[in-house]
Structures are given as structure tokens and as C-alpha cells.
3-isopropylmalate dehydrogenase
Amino acid sequence: MASSNSMHLIVLPGDGIGPEITAAAVAVLEAASDRFDLGLRLEHDIAGYASLERHGTTVRGELLEKVRAADGLVLGPMSTFDYTDESKGGVNPSMFFRKNLDLFANVRPARTYPGVPHHAAQDFDLVVVRENTEGFYADRNMESGGSEILVTPDVCISMRRITRACCERIARAAFRLAAARKRHVSIVHKANVLKIGDGIFIEECRKVAAEFPEVVVDDFIIDAMCAHVVRAPARFDVIVTTNMFGDILSDLTAELSGSLGLGGSVNAGTRYAMAQAAHGSAPDIAGQDRANPFSLILSTAQLLDWHADRLGSATFAAASRAIEAAVEEAVAAGESTPDVGGHFGTAATGAGIAQRVRAMAGTA
Ligand code: NAD
């Protein structure tokens, strides 16, 4: 049962660097719970390779029931590219939870930080709001079966699903967010080619825009948008787009901000939400205490903010802001991993953020 003075989360560390960055994120969550008296209950379980070895599947069906009895989950990155055969237990856990919990909004902020070298022409602070439940994703846009069909060994057809209902709800999530930020939404699409599907997407976004007259709206074709965000990212606030464009564009904006390891990401529905780093399992640096934990730590801050918004809890909102502020202070002080200019390992970076959160002034 959701409560404004408690939150119950399932923690699944994942593959590759997952266990290392999840341990760092858990240290920070525990610090936030102590400092802000959040009553956070973290229940640890496994998914990914550890689960495949022990249970014969990367994600057990009963995990869904566990998460449904909670408020959401923290999901570490998974080596999904290696899970080739669902019949042998290789299910993509990210898809599994996004689809079964109807986590329709993938919210992926990207911003520059003082002291962190970045790849953009200017400082910026924007959010990509990506539709998460349909589009070109063969594994989630059909009730049963996938939407990639091998017609002959040399011919494949990939189908994209676009529905008015999903366009409308992602647009509403984007406009609500923009109303609380810089009041600007950019609709990103490819309606010059995908005339029907992206035509529906633009129409639904424009309908929702009419309910938010204080929010400025513009729209861009995805290819041109890639040039615009590289050239002048500061002109953007909230970018709303369909699934695959959002997936790609948000990696670009995260990397522009300094590192893919700096991009937080929450997958939000109405009843549940899932914190998930924007990057993958980075097997090339796994087990070396080199992985940047900021993405998952910032994702957990977003998860607390989602809970705050759902329950109108100023305390959870303050805890979320404290984690973000602690990350900002840590990167400015060089207390971070080498990929963002610091000299700390993963565990020490997490411990440093946790310590800053515990010492953080300010309350709800
Ligand atoms: P990746 O994001 O794991 O790594 C790309 C590059 O970025 C690598 O050089 C890696 O070392 C670096 N990197 C990533 N995260 C980092 C971090 N936190 N700190 C420092 N450096 C970091 O992408 P990939 O190599 O293409 O994929 C590896 C596996 O992850 C694949 O199996 C892929 O399918 C999977 N994947 C999973 C998710 C997810 O679970 N959400 C997302 C993307 C990719």
C-alpha cells in the first residue's frame, strides 16, 4: 500500500557492472532514507545471469508479483544482447517489467555539470520523454508473439505499433513535466516518412498541448533534431518522442552532457516505476571498480521524485533533490569515476554521495 512516509522497492542488480553500481545506489538510497526518514524498504532479489544459473530463467514470473506488492523496482543493467533464446530462459528483464507493469513513460534527463567536461557547444538541462510500450519494439508491442517476421531467410518485416491512447498519455507526461520546468515541449517525429503513425503522434501531442497554454510547443524531424541538440542543446527543455527515436536521442543527449554514465532514467507508469541506468552492462569494465554509478544513483532520485509526485510528498521530493545535489557536489569536487574526470572507484563514489546526502541540510 503506497504511503507518503514509506516506500517498498525490489532491487535486482543485473549483469556486468550491475552489482557494483547497484551497491553504490543502494548505499545512497539507505542514506536518503535515514536522513529524510523515508521508511524505505529495500527487498533484494536477482535477475539476469545470476537468475539464469540458479533458476533457469533471467526473470522469474513470481518477481512480477513481488514488484506488484511493492511500489516499484531498481533494475541494474542486463546483458540483453546475450539473451538470444526465450525458450532457454533468456528473457529481457527490462522488457518484461516495462510491458507487464505498463511503464509507459521513459523519462531521461540530461544536463551538464559544473566541473565535468562535456561534448556540447553550451551548458544545457533537458529531458527526453520517450514512449516505452509500443513503437518499433518487436518484444513489447504485440499481445502475443513478436512484431519482427522472417518472411524468407533473407527477408524480414518489422512492424511498428502506434496508438492514440499511448501517444496521448506520453504527451500528457511530457506537458506536465514541462509545466513544472521551463514550459517548453519539443515534439520529435518522422512524420514526413511515417506519415500515418507519426501523424497520429503529432496530432495527439497537439491536442494535449491545448490543455497547457502556458507551455510553448514546437516540433522537429528526428534527423534534424540530432543536429539541433548537438549545435544548441540549451534551447530545449522537454523533448517528447516515440520509442525508438527516444531511445537513440537520449543516449546522444546523455553522452553530450559528459558521459553515458551520467544519464538517469526512470520508467514510470501510474502505479509502479522502475529506476534503470540509461547505459548497458558494460562487460568490458565489469568487476574493476571503474563503472560510474551516477546514472543509476540519479535514476533512484527520479524514482523518489515519482513517488513524491504520486503521493504529494514534500519529503520524498526533498530526498530526491538532495541526491541530485550530492551528485553535483561530488562531480565538482572530483569525487567521481575517471570517465567524468574524477579519481574514485565505483564503491568510493557511492559512499561519498551517501555521506553527502546524510550531511545534507534542508528539509521538505
Ligand atoms: P554499454 O552501455 O554497456 O557500454 C557502452 C560503452 O560505455 C562501453 O565502453 C562501457 O564501458 C561504457 N559504459 C557504460 N556504462 C558505463 C558506466 N556506468 N561507467 C563507465 N563506462 C560505462 O553498451 P554495450 O556495450 O553496447 O552493451 C553491453 C550489454 O548491455 C549488451 O548485452 C546490451 O544488450 C546490454 N544493454 C542493456 C541495457 C539495459 O539493461 N537497460 C541497455 C543497453 C544495453
